[in-house]
Design goal:
Low-confidence stretches: none
CATH superfamily of the largest domain: D-amino Acid Aminotransferase, subunit A, domain 2
Strand content: 25-35%
Bound molecules: 4'-deoxy-4'-aminopyridoxal-5'-phosphate
CATH architecture of the largest domain: Alpha-Beta Barrel
Number of strands: 15
Mean pLDDT: 97
């Protein structure tokens, strides 16, 4: 975190370095909780209703009752943004199961903790982003939906972290995870798109991807800009044979991909990426006009 990071913790605003939760919070003991990553531009949270909706659905899926109403969460986020030192930034919103006995049973965790941290987040520095990300296809598979549904944005990201470690060891910027069938699911913290012969393709979320809010926006922008787009299962070959590839996410925003498993892509940043990136920037400018 930077020294500007601030935290909203169960109704109290304080410098992030002074915010703390009990060591027996099941969020820490077991990764028992849910979260969202939200960007704000010009002090306006981008696509906040979509993030709060996904948080709510993730919480319902793990039988976690968020102790705040949507209006209270919005007020908390707005208060945090108003108190932050800069106009643009990133918020990590978390709801943990709360403090409880050391055993994993959530039954005796009486009160969930709601935590929101505002800070800066850069997935890759600007130079690297302009040059394009170097990806690997990780040997770590995305968990199957009958283990942990990938639509649940839970505090447990260990298999994504293992994939990221593999990318680090390979000297790459990001790792793609396949599903149990060997088809492409998503990146460690982002969704993936390819372009082939002018057609924009991304795996359906049923292939093991989070229902990314940026992914949904990119599909909307493609439709609005006359770019043909399909959700369809993709294999590793489709990645290697793509004309363009890029990553999307709240943290990542839109990042072009230069190579996958050391196979350079012909177009980085390609023409489809550049159009979508422009439309993305325009959407942010239109929806986040400043306070
Ligand atoms: N997949 C995973 C696993 C993620 O953690 C994220 C980041 N939230 C994404 C995809 C992108 O989702 P979004 O565009 O909603 O940030």
């Amino acid at each position: 975190m930077t020294d500007r990071a601030i935290c909203w913790l169960n109704g109290q605003l304080l410098p992030a370095e002074r915010a703390g939760i009990p060591v027996n919070d099941h969020g820490l003991l077991y990764g028992d909780g849910v979260f969202e990553g939200i960007r704000f531009y010009k002090r306006r949270a981008f696509r906040l209703p979509q993030h709060l909706q996904r948080l709510q659905l993730s919480a319902r899926a793990i039988a976690l009752q968020i102790p705040l109403s949507a209006a209270e969460l919005i007020a908390a986020i707005e208060g945090l943004i108003a108190a932050f030192a800069e106009d643009d930034g990133y918020i990590r919103l978390m709801v943990t199961r709360g403090a409880g006995p050391l055993g994993l049973n959530p039954k005796s965790c009486a009160s969930p903790n709601v935590i929101a941290i505002a800070d800066q987040l850069t997935m890759m520095d600007i130079g690297q982003q302009q040059a394009g990300a170097r990806l690997i296809v990780s040997s770590v598979r995305r968990l199957p939906a009958d283990g942990l549904d990938p639509r649940i944005k839970s505090l447990n990201y260990l298999n994504h972290i293992l994939a990221k470690i593999e990318a680090n060891h390979a000297g790459a910027d990001e790792a793609l995870l396949l599903n149990g069938q060997g088809r492409v699911a998503e990146g460690s913290a982002d969704n993936v798109f390819i372009v082939r012969d002018g057609l924009l393709l991304t795996p359906p979320c049923s292939e093991g991807a989070l229902e990314g809010i940026t992914r949904e926006l990119v599909l909307e922008l493609a439709r609005a800009n006359g770019i043909e787009a399909n959700e369809q299962p993709l294999g590793v070959y489709d990645l290697y044979a793509a004309d363009e590839c890029f990553l999307t996410g709240t943290g990542a925003e839109l990042i072009p991909v230069a190579s996958i498993d050391c196979r350079p892509l012909p177009d980085c940043p390609g023409p489809t990426f550049r159009r979508l990136r422009q439309a993305f920037v325009e959407t942010i400018a239109a929806e986040c006009r400043g306070a």
